């Protein structure tokens, strides 16, 4: 008899498991395709290797969620730990020998890519790198593709931006370069470009990467009277060694570097120094670097979506490596779909994928990535914009002026048309205005009218002149004008800060449907109407507002507590405002939404009050499991009266509560519980009538066990769906769901998104 | 068998939580405390004040986790203000090699004697009471956190115009054009000579004629000297403001003698005299009968006054009162700051283990010396503290006047101004800026506030709103006002007003002795205090408040001070106060960067003076 009980248990569990794993089973029936990801998974650059993996994984998850392409394929990313060029060759030969991988993402470093490239070429394996910027890696092989701009474009961009780094009348600038770091033509090309733009000649400091040579460079720079801005054409480790040699108070040479200085690995090498620990950013504050992607400039809808997903999943802002490999993965997945491979010969399939990749060769075919629209030229390279960022308190934030160089040379063969490079490039520039909102007080939250009063400081920080007061608050009740500034300051680098105080009423979306678990986003939105997004962008001043990205602002610095409300978080987000036609993307304006997310202070007591009748019903239903099986009519009678009671309470709530969602969900939940109770009652009665006394008891026992589990699960789910669980629990569940999404939950979650 | 199981079960139930809750793991990991010696006249009032100040700080810092997890421990030593004793204690400390730093001594002579040993033994020392330059001038191990005699004398000299103008009821702009008289009484020792030298120097620059000059000699008979001073003062037809550049003992004798003789002169007391004035004057019968008999009307200078101590100063006073049930004196505040500076230096230098105590002390000294300019300085309750090359500080004193034995700040206070102001001289004439001992100063305007005829008109049922009408009286020198606006005290912003209240024209306006008082009628509805959190089961009686602040002027340029202070209730916590209306001012302080990179990763706060009216 005990066996029967066990069987029932087992069956129930099996049923639930089957239901949950349904997707998983379905997927396991699909064809599996392997994509190799070769990057530094250990050692000093492991941070970058992880970023690659994160970006690629997120891209795959998003494509899967979208569900439009690759419906009947399962992709598996196989990471390979690529530390240097020697391991790169070994990895390449492993991939060749295993004959499993259809495509390679990577390698991370230029040298790794150059070493592995010939193997992929001779064995016909397509590879996409989104970080190896050395030109020769891709130009020598039609199997190798690159989704970020190459070294020519990067150095050209750096040469163009260098002029902005000159302070005052300085007439010197320098380049420090490792002789082996770039293709031979890149450094002379850079020097030519920079000298043309700066109108004077550069000081050059070449070196090999041995210790003595670096010491010599440091000594020479220290001895030099005037060095001016320095371009570092070196790896991040070499740059770190040189910088730690001469970075001390009084030697604030502006420094600009290539993409290799725009990754966290660059600043992490200083972590062990005592100055850095005492004063974060001691060595790296003010170092500029060229980057294919800076998350603070990514305000286009798809990029915003990517950022939000990334931050939610990994708890940090995406670096350019993560963004670039997200894009590379998108390109790879699109190519896989286009290639229409179906089993068969892997050699053949690889060729199909390669052909599909090379067909992405014009704007109309482009894959819309977060770094731009990606399509390849005949060299397997892309022509994408670059951005200039600067390190500040260990955050990589955009520089005050961003250039878009058109007529970019990297899109062409280097020496095809020598006279054309002499032409002056046309450049458009984008002004970056840092802006911050620091809330003093929030009062008079009126849910009926959807209005609240906010008292806050707002500031703008920019370079040069800018009409900062011409800002429009989009959701203020009355138009807000900025009066006298409480601070106006311009420092010697021509950086101006203007801070104002604003006290005004703002509107917000005040739905109380989920009362008392309702959360509100008290929003302060403003945008700049005078210039479009093409020439002006607002960037939230995270360093000025909270000190760092990872630090949450929970309103600790508010002058008064909100009465009746608790602050979950205060965040400032970028947005775009496009008037009129949705399809015309050309005209859009930069906008900042600052949201004060609040929930009710007494939500637990209020919930308990509301839930009390329901909890009473739930308790009584549980007690029914202790009634003997033969008394089925009593059970049914009680169940029925409880049903009426619940409906009665629900109807009553309709008139007295501001929000109906919770009551409605509870009603539904109790109906399910009553149904369960009725079924168990029926089952046990039936077994009893047939004299299976023990079986009847077993059913009741099972009910007694399952019922509380179901109630707990139901309540947890209810709270979860209203984001009312303690933060860590909430996060754990949402992570579980993100990695394995049952469709019904996803649908529900999507509806929750404001 | 069953018993066994039960007993085991109980053991588990009891021992488990006990292990969990007892801080055994903490006890094992407890790091060795950092020992600081506090040396002074521990049995006297000043020594006790030192002790109270530093103890209050220790509690706070240890609660915050100490220095890198190491708690602070004090070693109190009594030197009885005696040089020999001080030297002996210093020798012991150097031998024991246990303390990281010395705070003290109280007297110059004691400090001087002990300082030599600290220098030799490599022990950093900070005094927050000694005025003499000699203790720090050639001892790089000795630091001082109160300004020295040179700043005091110069500040006093530069206030002569202000004091005389208000004393004679002449506009400052006029008096500043002529040469004014002044007199000085100084002691014959090094300190007094030093004050005299600096006073004369700045007097000459400002066009002050020194009419009377008396040197006090401890060797000679006191009464003879006092008689002499009285006689000579009578002979001078206008001695101007008399500066008491003396220690407390002789200063009090002269002041009381002059008062007893029925003479009233404008007088200003040195910091040393101010510090012990009320302690010394206690023994005079007239003062006991009529409190304030000797002190009222006298000007003084002091390093600390709560009203001007900023948000931290108010916090300090509040906590001090809560702990010791009395208001903190200057000595307590100065030593509170001194230990704060010491702890900041220790944090900056990064202490190592016990074996490296000599090296640690060297690092602490380097860290202290590293606070060499305004930006590297530490903000304390007595002002911004940074050390010049001699190891002394340069910062402002607060100038005040006693009224009813209470210290009231003078209408203009000068603040150390971080940054540059171009036209300093013009600034001084405008009353805005002054150059002092190589510092650029900006001025703070003090406005006295009084609330009269307060009437509550209607409290709503939920006690969330109320109406009030009252008269608001501002008092300040007439020269603060210019034509551009109604009054320097305006526009004010009622922080908890339901709808913004605009003050109209003053209902009453009088000017007397160059001091204007303007009375405004206020009527409005206010929000009741929302801070008092109601518990689940009962609602506390809500206290009603009216708060206001200046709409634009920040704390460093305008401070509201209550005209009359309700002594009994002033610093008690809100719960334990009783009946009536209470006025007090404090600081509305917000930590923000305002987007200025200069303030990133700093403790910059944007402060406004806030005036509070509290009633039931």
How would you characterize the overall build of this protein?
The complex is a heterodimer of chains A (754) and B (616). Chain A has 754 residues and is α/β, with parallel strands linked by helices. Chain A is 44% helix and 22% strand. Chain A has a seven-stranded mixed beta sheet with strand order 7-6-8-9-10-13-14, sandwiched between helices. In chain A, strands 15, 16, 17, 19, 20 and 22 form a six-stranded mixed beta sheet that branches. A five-stranded parallel beta sheet of chain A has the order 2-1-3-4-5. In chain A, helix 8 crosses helix 9, helix 17 packs parallel to helix 19 and helix 19 packs antiparallel against helix 20. Chain A is globular, with a radius of gyration of 31 Å. Chain A starts with a helix and ends with a helix. The C terminus of chain A is likely disordered. Chain B has a seven-stranded mixed beta sheet, sandwiched between helices. In chain B, strands 15, 16, 17, 18, 20, 21 and 23 form a seven-stranded mixed beta sheet that branches. About 5% of the residues of chain B have low confidence. The interface between A and B is medium-sized, with 35 and 20 residues.
Question: In summary, what is this structure?
Answer:
Chain A is of the alpha/beta class and 754 residues long. Helices cover 44% and strands 22% of the residues of chain A. In chain A, the strands form 5 sheets. A 7-stranded mixed beta sheet of chain A has the order 7-6-8-9-10-13-14, with helices on both faces. In chain A, strands 15, 16, 17, 19, 20 and 22 form a 6-stranded mixed beta sheet that branches. In chain A, strands 2-1-3-4-5 form a 5-stranded parallel beta sheet.
